[in-house]
Write a sequence for this structure.
C-alpha cells in the first residue's frame, strides 16, 4: 500500500513539475505562447506563478518566479518521499535533493521531448501545433550540433548527439 501511494504522489508531483519546467523552457526559448499546448501550460501554472511574479522579477530570459516555483515542487517531492516512507529528515539534504530533483526532471523532460520530436518527424504529414512547439523548444539545442556535424546523406544525427550528451550529464552528476 505504501509503495502504491508513494508512486501515485510522486507521479502527480512529477507531472506538474514537468509542466512548470516546460513553462520555464518555453519562456527561455521564446516559444509561441499562442500554441494550444503553450496555453495549457500557462493556464496550469499561472495561479502560483502569477502570485510569485509580484515578488520576483524576470532576469533576462529567466523567470525567477517560475524557477523558484519549480524548486519548491522539487523540495515538495523530496519531502513527500521522506514523509511517505518514514525516512530520516535533514533540512540541508531536503533542499539539496530538491534541487537535484528539478535538474533530473529537466534533463529527463528534454530527453523525452527530443525522442518525441524525432519520432514525429518520421510520421508527420504537415503542420501540427505540437510538432511546431517541439521544434521551437529543441532547435536551440540542436542547431549548434548541426553546425559541427552536418546532415549525412539526409540523416540528421544532431538529435542522437544531444541525447548522448544529456545521458552523459545525468551520469556525470549522478541523477
Amino acid at each position: 500500500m505504501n509503495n502504491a501511494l508513494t508512486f501515485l504522489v510522486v507521479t502527480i508531483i512529477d507531472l506538474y513539475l514537468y509542466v512548470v519546467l516546460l513553462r520555464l523552457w518555453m519562456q527561455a526559448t521564446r516559444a509561441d505562447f499562442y500554441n494550444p499546448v503553450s496555453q495549457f501550460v500557462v493556464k496550469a501554472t499561472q495561479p502560483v506563478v502569477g502570485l510569485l511574479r509580484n515578488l520576483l522579477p524576470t532576469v533576462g530570459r529567466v523567470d525567477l518566479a517560475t524557477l523558484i516555483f519549480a524548486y519548491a515542487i522539487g523540495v515538495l517531492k523530496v519531502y513527500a518521499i521522506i514523509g511517505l516512507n518514514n525516512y530520516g529528515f535533514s533540512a540541508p539534504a531536503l533542499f539539496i535533493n530538491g534541487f537535484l530533483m528539478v535538474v533530473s526532471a529537466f534533463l529527463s523532460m528534454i530527453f523525452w521531448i527530443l525522442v518525441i520530436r524525432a519520432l514525429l518527424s518520421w510520421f508527420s504529414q504537415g503542420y501540427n501545433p505540437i510538432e511546431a512547439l517541439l521544434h521551437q523548444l529543441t532547435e536551440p539545442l540542436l542547431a549548434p550540433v548541426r553546425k559541427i556535424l552536418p546532415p549525412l546523406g539526409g540523416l540528421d544525427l544532431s538529435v542522437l548527439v544531444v541525447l548522448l550528451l544529456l545521458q552523459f550529464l545525468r551520469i556525470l552528476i549522478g541523477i
Summary: The chain has a mean pLDDT of 90. Residues 2-173 form one domain. The longest strand covers residues 58-59.
